[in-house]
Amino acid sequence: MRSNLLPLLRQGWAYIGWAFGLFVLFALFDCTILEFLSFVAFVAFIYIYRNPERELPLFQNSSVTTPVDGTVVSIEELDELEYGYKIEIESDFSNVAVLRVPMSGSLLFTEHQKGTRLAKNSPLFAKTNENAVLIFENRDANKVKVVHRCKQSFDGIHIDIIAGQHLVQSYRYGSMVNGLTTIYLPRNFRLSINVSNELIGSETLIGYFS
């Protein structure tokens, strides 16, 4: 498990470096238009891969916070034994790409599958796009399943934790640029969010286990 406390995510260093290098090269050869475009790309990559500090509010031990920044696009009740609620959160290039642990506990399972990066409205989006599945469990054996899935993006999903590790709520565990996050919660959960709410990773409360 690797923590990144620098102002920029290390997953973006290569993009930022290449953009800056091209800016310097085009400036030396006086290629004005290309110089401007590379500078815009340089600034854009810095913005996309920003890594801000977040203050963790004093929630109860049974709380779950959002693992991503984004907008709640759907909340659905499920007729399943293990999970009773399904929440979908959509993130875009303007959102912070950092992924954060939703509750203190351990990581039971993680799986990362490479794939395509089709648009969300594609019929193959759910079947073929790159995705990562994680299942967290707190000390009371309550489980939360999180599925990250890429949309159209130049970068994929990066996961920096492995199963079996003990984790603290709000800890950074990876990144995803422009994606859809689905959270599955058990029936003994009380939701504190609604559709269209704007969420901030680790700061917005999703709800509590009852």
Could you explain the architecture of this structure?
With 210 residues, the protein is of the alpha+beta class. It has 2 domains: 10-48; 63-209, Glucose Permease (Domain IIA) (Distorted Sandwich), CATH 2.70.70. It contains 3 helices and 14 strands. It has helices at 13-28, 32-48, 125-128, and strands spanning 63-65, 70-77, 85-90, 98-100, 105-113, 131-137, 143-150, 157-159, 166-167, 172-176, 179-185, 189-191, 198-199, 205-209. The strands form 3 sheets. An 8-stranded antiparallel beta sheet has the order 9-5-6-7-11-3-2-13, with no helix packed on it. Strands 1-14-12 form a 3-stranded antiparallel beta sheet, with no helix packed on it. α1 (13-28) packs antiparallel against α2. The longest helix has 17 residues, at 32-48. The protein starts with 12 loop residues before the first helix and ends with a strand.
Keywords:
3 helices, Glucose Permease (Domain IIA), alpha+beta, 210 residues, eight-stranded antiparallel sheet, three-stranded antiparallel sheet
Describe, in short, the structure shown.
The protein is an alpha+beta fold and 210 residues long. It has helices at 13-28, 32-48, 125-128, and strands spanning 63-65, 70-77, 85-90, 98-100, 105-113, 131-137, 143-150, 157-159, 166-167, 172-176, 179-185, 189-191, 198-199, 205-209. A hairpin with a 7-residue loop joins strand 2 and strand 3 (85-90).
